[in-house]
Write a structure and sequence with these properties.
Number of domains of chain B: 1
Mean pLDDT of chain B: 85
Helix content of chain B: over 70%
Radius of gyration of chain A: 23 Å
Low-confidence stretches of chain B: 239-257
Structural class of chain A: mainly alpha
Number of strands of chain A: 0
Number of helices of chain B: 24
Order of helices and strands of chain B: HHHHHHHHHHHHHHHHHHHHHHHH
Strand content of chain A: under 5%
Oligomer: heterodimer
Order of helices and strands of chain A: HHHHHHHHHHHHHHHHHHHHHHHHHH
Number of helices of chain A: 26
Distance between the termini of chain A: 66 Å
Helix content of chain A: over 70%
């Protein structure tokens, strides 16, 4: 009996020590942080605005950002909807089958590379895909008698967070690619300035060089940090099961009602034809847009994700149900954004962004300052797109070059998201991670390395 | 005897209609997809636009209602969070305890729903469904069987009179100085539209028919009853959050003692929770004190009202966050499906289909039949362009041109007929039902049969009203 109690106590202590619950106990929720930011916004604008005007901006500031808010919610929800599908699961299974699983170094490295490359394409592809692929590789290795330290593999899966905001579907760049002002809060549609060309953003030297460097070296850094001694390694079987059988089975959560019970309405709901026709019509519309010289923007990405999601889930109802499930990814933005909007509105009305911009410009290291501010602010605002909405106007006011500024903020947001990894891991599956000390060690090493590289590149280019 | 027979008739009608809908009406999302295909087909067949142009209009119009979809989602989420606050739950539970039988429960829901609908369409979409849900839970706790889908349908039916009520979009718009048709028709005061005696008589008929028909459709056989889902009951029976005992981030913490002290302080602080509500309400109080309510009340203000009240009534951020998880899931279909209606609106507007329908209605009308034609054409177009204000923007010009081309036709009556048509087909269009379905946890197939019957009877009332407007009796 005494032994059992001791074991339970030890387990409980270990459980409290794991990074998801441990770091979670210090994170007071996005809404709370947003509320504190909004109150801070009120306090700093006291000398500049009358009480009523202050309260008006605080209470109704969100009126002007409704389209941005919906775009960002859909960005999170639709990306996850597309990735959390049977077809994507099959692709992940294929990738996991093709990658080396012979030793710890190879598994950590290949998981990290997949996370960075997939993450560059889209946050959900990189984050969800790499976490699942890393788990499968670790399981295969264990089945073959190879001991792999799973915490390092899991962290390698989270590397996608670092680069996903400077990639193909960077929320900041896509919001800024809109020249109409629907999602680009900074643009003046009449003048047409302050629109980001997504190609120029992706091909910016800081972006290209940093990505190449990180894909080659970041996974290696993690592999080096992982314990080399076999007895210090924690195998994947010591953690909760994340994958049941294959990744495709795990992601295929839709249950079709028994065919013999189908009525006419069910046939429509389960019709693959409707899904295919919708996809074809959507593809024609998207094709027409790009053939006519249209640029990739947030809204066209979202349109593409909807069309792709319907096709990839095969049945319209499977898509609709997955959308509902994927809303868990938007918890951190749906309501907190109203308070981010309050901050934006207060600072804009007062003209505070100009003052902040002057301070940033006065440092003489505008991009570095932007990066560091984003790194800190990102911990309070987990959504990189929202972070840009709040921070972007100040950077523009500083007169800094737009694209490198955007790159610096998006990198800062990505690295701070790594520190909020406990939020993302807990959302993917019931993995509560490993010792928080170990996670902090990995995150700190990655932060230092990425910061040095990004700041150096921003200074050089 | 006669009374008993008529009750039986309506019950049978409700059952049959519901069975038919369950058989043939797919989920609201599939409905939106099918309507998209149909609109494309109609545009290709009846306008001079080719298939590729029509498909392009769809893609370009897809985000037509982006802002509106966020407003609707926020109205739902903030309204949900407010209504699920401990004090409001207690009040709704007490009101829900008043009815003693199924028919009384449906009648009470109809009365409350119609009042909400006449006040504001945004309010009824959320509050009507929440009230229906609370009545269902209260009846379940009293062990009285109530057909939950009918109750929710009745709450949703509160939307029926909205475009003749205080938030009638087209009527408020034409009463606004410098509205987009001001050069042509001037400013039309609400005394000529919303408060025009003919409008008041027709809307009274619409309200009355709803309050009579909905209770009469209550199933009598126990086999036909669907009671409130267990999940809704569970959440209703949850003790009111006292500052919370579970971690809000989904981690496996079992109690607050495992949180950092400052996290507990922030999440359970009434100073922060109530303070946020007071800050928002300080402005709203000023706004309402210095302006006429109907001059400033709109959907954005409604969201701010709900947002502020949510904080005030929950007291702590922890309580608010706990409820909010369900609310965002309930709003998920609004995020997606509203965009498809944007695509449909794009096709309707840019292919000229909407204009064509309105012009056709005008072509075959006289002074007597014009209001009926306007009512029917507005009802038809609303099926494809469910936003009342949006529909007025798309077709208002054509309606006014047509009205002015027929001698003896009044502009104010044309707008009233337009409003009636717009609100009428909402009863067979799932678009507006999405928030209610999210709150109730039901499918469109569960409720559409009942509101379909109401659609027929209210249509008869409104069509008669439109004809009476034409002959000059109203």
């Amino acid at each position: 009996m005494a032994t059992n109690t001791k074991t339970d106590d030890t387990r409980s202590q270990e459980s409290d020590d794991r990074f998801v619950p441990f770091l979670g106990q210090y994170f007071p929720e996005s809404l709370t942080l947003a509320a504190l930011l909004a109150v801070l916004g009120l306090v700093v604008t006291v000398p500049y605005l009358g009480v009523i005007e202050q309260l008006e901006q605080f209470s109704t500031g969100f009126f002007s950002l409704l389209t941005v808010q919906m775009s960002l919610i859909l960005f999170w929800v639709l990306s996850a909807t597309v990735v959390e599908s049977r077809w994507m699961g099959r692709m992940f299974d294929l990738v996991a089958g093709a990658l080396p699983a012979g030793n710890q170094w190879a598994i950590i490295y290949s998981t990290g590379v997949v996370a960075l490359l997939f993450g560059w394409v889209n946050w959900a592809l990189g984050l969800i895909g790499a976490v699942f692929i890393g788990y499968q590789l670790s399981s295969q290795a264990e089945a073959n008698g190879v001991h792999v330290h799973y915490p390092a593999v899991l962290t390698a899966g989270l590397l996608s967070l670092v680069v996903t905001n400077v990639g193909l579907t960077s929320p900041g760049a896509l919001l800024m690619a809109d020249s109409t002002g629907t999602t680009n809060v900074i643009v003046d549609p009449d003048v047409g300035n302050l629109v980001v060309d997504t190609s120029a953003f992706l091909l910016h030297p800081v972006n290209i060089v940093s990505l190449a460097l990180f894909v080659l070296t970041l996974p290696a850094l993690l592999a080096l940090l992982a314990p080399s001694e076999e007895n210090k390694r924690k195998s994947v079987s010591e953690f909760t099961d994340v994958v049941q059988g294959s990744i495709s089975n795990t992601l295929d959560t839709y249950s079709i009602p028994p065919k013999e019970e189908w009525v006419f309405a069910d046939k429509l709901e389960q019709s693959r034809t409707i899904a295919v026709v919708t996809f074809i019509l959507g593809a024609i519309s998207i094709g027409g847009y790009f053939l006519n010289g249209g640029e990739l923007s947030m809204l066209w990405l979202l349109f593409g994700l909807i069309i792709l999601g319907i096709f990839i889930h095969g049945r319209p109802m499977a898509f609709a149900e997955e959308v509902t499930d994927a809303t868990r990814w938007a918890n951190h933005i749906a309501i907190p954004f109203l308070l981010y909007a309050a901050v934006f509105s207060l600072l804009s009305t007062v003209g505070f962004y100009g003052n902040i911009g002057e301070v940033i410009a006065a440092t003489g290291i505008t991009q570095t300052t932007s990066y560091l501010v984003a790194l800190v602010l990102g911990v309070l605002i987990p959504s990189p797109g929202s972070l840009w909405v709040i921070q972007g106007p100040a950077i523009v006011a500083s007169g800094a070059e737009l694209i490198p500024s955007l790159v610096s903020v998006m990198y800062g947001a990505g690295v701070s998201n790594l520190w909020l990894g406990f939020l993302f891991v807990g959302t993917i599956a019931t993995i509560y991670g490993f010792s928080w000390r170990e996670y902090v060690r990995y995150a700190a090493a990655i932060t230092v390395y990425v910061s040095v590289v990004v700041i150096a590149l921003l200074v050089v280019f | 005897m006669n009374n008993s027979k008529s009750r039986g008739l309506f019950t049978i009608l409700g059952d049959k209609s519901s069975a038919l809908v369950r058989q043939f009406l797919p989920d609201a999302f599939i409905f939106a997809l099918m309507l998209t295909f149909l609109t494309m087909l109609l545009a290709v067949v009846f306008t001079d636009q080719g298939p590729v142009a029509v498909v392009s209009h769809w893609g370009e119009g897809f985000w037509f209602v982006l802002a509106f979809s966020m407003q609707s989602a926020l109205a739902l989420m903030t309204g949900w969070a407010f209504a699920d606050s401990p004090p409001i739950k207690r009040v709704l539970q007490r009101i829900g305890e008043i009815p003693r039988t199924q028919k009384q429960a449906v009648f009470a829901t109809a009365v409350v729903g119609q009042i909400f609908g006449l006040f504001h369409w945004g309010v009824v979409l959320v509050a009507g469904a929440i009230f229906a849900r609370e009545v269902a839970v209260a009846m379940e706790e009293k062990d009285v069987d109530v057909h939950y889908p009918l109750l929710v349908a009745t709450g949703y039916a509160g939307l029926l009179p909205w475009h003749q009520g205080l938030s009638a979009a087209s009527m408020l718009l034409v009463a606004t100085p410098d509205h987009f048709l001001a050069d042509q028709i001037g400013v039309v005061p609400v005394s000529e539209t919303i408060f025009y005696p003919g409008n008041l008589i027709i809307v009274a008929g619409v309200v009355l028919v709803t309050m009579i028909i909905m209770p009469l459709m209550a199933p009598e056989k126990k086999d036909n009853l669907i009671t409130v889902p267990a999940s809704k009951l569970r959440s209703a029976r949850q003790p009111a959050p006292d500052g919370g005992v579970e971690a809000v981030d989904g981690s496996p913490m079992s109690s607050r003692r495992q949180e950092a002290a400052y996290k507990t302080l922030l999440l359970d602080s009434r100073v922060l929770g109530v303070g946020l509500g007071l800050l928002i309400w300080a402005y709203l109080g000023y706004l309402f004190a210095t302006n006429a309510l109907m001059d400033v009340f709109n959907l954005n203000i409604f969201i701010a009202v709900m947002f502020g009240l949510g904080f005030l009534f929950h007291g702590t951020l922890r309580s608010y966050i706990n409820v909010f998880r369900d609310a965002i899931e309930g709003a998920s279909q609004i995020f997606i499906q509203f965009q498809f209606y944007g695509g449909i609106m794009g096709i309707m507007a840019w292919s000229g289909l909407a204009t064509m329908i309105a012009q056709t209605a005008a072509q075959y009308s006289t002074e007597t039949t014009w209001y009926l034609a306007a009512f029917l054409s507005a009802g038809t177009i609303n099926f494809f362009v469910p936003s009342g204000g949006g529909q007025w923007v798309v077709t208002g010009q054509v309606m006014i041109d047509a009205a002015q081309s027929i001698p003896g036709v009044d502009i104010n009556k044309t707008i009233i007929a337009f409003g009636m048509g717009d609100q009428w087909t909402n009863m067979i269009q799932p678009f507006w039902a999405l928030p209610a379905l999210g709150i109730a946890g039901l499918s469109i197939r569960d409720i559409m049969g009942y509101v379909g019957v109401l659609f027929l009877f209210s249509g008869a009332v409104m069509a008669t009203g439109a004809l009476l407007l034409g002959v000059g009796i109203l």
